[in-house]
Write a structure and sequence with these properties.
Mean pLDDT: 77
Number of domains: 2
Oligomer: single chain
Structural class: alpha+beta
Low-confidence stretches: none
Order of helices and strands: HEEEEEEH
Radius of gyration: 35 Å
Helix content: 25-40%
CATH architecture of the largest domain: Roll
Length: 168
């Protein structure tokens, strides 16, 4: 038969070195917790709220330059971190002058070199698919956005277009 004797457990002696390690760890614990909270709050802000603080005046005309080298002009109706919504949209149509075969400004005496001609077009007027006068542009496709001056050529062209439309 096996007999068990009752033994009392005595706590092991704690060395002074392990006491100082524990107290040092406990001193840094609040600092580690604060750093972790700051990282979590910063991460939440970065992923959910970035880009929302940038305000773009919606009453003015802007030029929106895209990654595919197209430029659209219009009034920004809505802007967030995913898209920009343009209304009253215009774009430039570039027409190259036709040249008669065998003739060029260099070979024809008295001929003036002609550059491309720009025509401001209103979105939805002449396109065969008949788009509505609104564009939703993915932010990833936008290089930059510029506000346009009221006395600039594009805004004056838009004003002339609107005046002609009212007269018709």
């Amino acid at each position: 038969m096996v007999s068990f004797s009752q033994q009392t457990a005595t706590p092991a002696a704690v060395s002074p070195a392990s006491k100082s390690t524990r107290s040092t760890d406990q001193k840094f614990l609040p600092l580690v917790v604060v750093a972790a909270v700051i990282l979590v709050v910063g991460g939440v802000y970065y992923f959910f709220f970035r880009g929302r603080g940038t305000k773009i005046a919606s009453g003015e005309y802007h030029a929106v330059f895209l990654t595919n080298n197209q430029v659209y002009f219009g009034r920004i109706a809505k802007s967030n971190d995913r898209e920009v919504v343009l209304k009253d949209v215009y774009y430039l149509l570039i027409r190259q002058p036709a040249q008669v075969q065998g003739q060029s400004p260099e070979t024809t005496p008295g001929a003036q070199p002609q550059g491309p001609k720009f025509e401001l077009r209103h979105l939805g007027d002449r396109e065969p698919h008949g788009p509505v006068d609104e564009m939703r542009i993915n932010r990833d496709q936008i290089l930059f956005i510029e506000p346009l001056r009221e006395d600039g050529m594009v805004v004056r062209g838009i004003q002339r277009y609107k005046e002609q439309q009212q007269q018709q």
